[in-house]
Every structure is written in C-alpha cells, then in structure tokens.
Amino acid sequence: MDAQGTPRPKRNIFWPTFNTLDDAKWASRQAFWAAAFVSLMTGVLAVLAISGNAFARKLHLSGWSLFDSSLFALIAVGLWKQSRVAAVAGLALYLFEQGYNIVSTRNLGLPIIAILFTFAFIAGVRGTWARRRLLKEAAPDPSLGGELRDAA
C-alpha cells in the first residue's frame, strides 16, 4: 500500500506494461537500481584491486574499473531523471561488458544475475520510451486552443 492507503498495482518485473506514467517511472527505477548496484560493486572491487586484494584481481579488475564504475554512476543519474539516452547507454554498456567478460575469461560467472540485470536495463529502455509516448499523448493540442487531446 502507498501513503494514501491504496493498494499498489502488481507488476511483472520481467516485462512490465506501460499504461500510466507511474508504470514507466517504475520501470526506469528498476534500471536505475541495477546501474547503481553495478556502479557501487564495481567501484568497491576496483578499489580492492588497486590495494592488491587477490580476490578482486582474480575477477580481472583494475584501476580502470573505476572509470567503468563512474560510467554506470552517470547512467544511474540519467535513469533517475528518466533519460532515454541513459537507458540505452546503460543497456548497451552492460551487454558489451557481459560479452567482453565472457570472451576474455571464458567464464559465464553467475548467469542468473546477468539475466536479471539485463531484464532490468531492458525495462528501463522500454519505460523511458513509454514515458515519452505517454507524455506526448497527454500533451495539449495547439490546434484545439491548448485543450488536451482525447486519449481515445
């Protein structure tokens, strides 16, 4: 339930529907949390790798991983603002890095985590584009003297 006592709608976390701006915002928030988590974990592990931690070095992380962490942090900020560019960049960067890690280490790691994060980033892309569409549909029509268009 939300603050007003109304029940929250049940949402499909893997393939959400976008009937309202709230639905679109919810999906972009899923991508935000994925980007924030990737940024935080990459940053922490990069600092550990720089300090000589064997576990972090075994994951093939280095000081350059701080740059990667910063990119995901910027993407997270853009996703919080529901930017379509940030959503597409987050999905593209995440997929590129997953592919690079598989090719360079010949290890899948934890595929369930990669699948969940990929769905979160896809939901972010879909949500930001749906938000744009929903805002355009609700925009005042200048030919009607500023009246809202009929949604039907």
Structure, explained:
By secondary structure, the chain is mainly α. It has one domain (21-138). 66% of the residues lie in helices and 0% in strands. The chain is built from five helices and no strands. The chain has helices at 21-50, 54-58, 65-80, 84-105, 111-138. The longest helix is centred in the N-terminal third of the chain and has 30 residues, at 21-50. It is elongated. The model has no long low-confidence stretch (mean pLDDT 84).
Helix-strand layout with pairing:
Layout: H1 21-50, H2 54-58, H3 65-80, H4 84-105, H5 111-138
Q: How much of the polypeptide forms β-strand, as a percent range?
A: under 5%
Label the structural class: mainly alpha
Return residue spans where pLDDT drops below 50 for at least 5 consecutive residues.
none
Major sheet summary line: none
Oligomer type? single chain
Overall spatial form = elongated
Give me the strand/helix succession: HHHHH
How many separate helices?
Answer: 5
Task: Estimate nothing, just give the exact number of structural domains.
Answer: 1
Mean pLDDT: 84
Q: How many strands?
A: 0
Helix content: 55-70%
What is the rounded distance between the termini? 30 Å
* Computed Rg: 19 Å
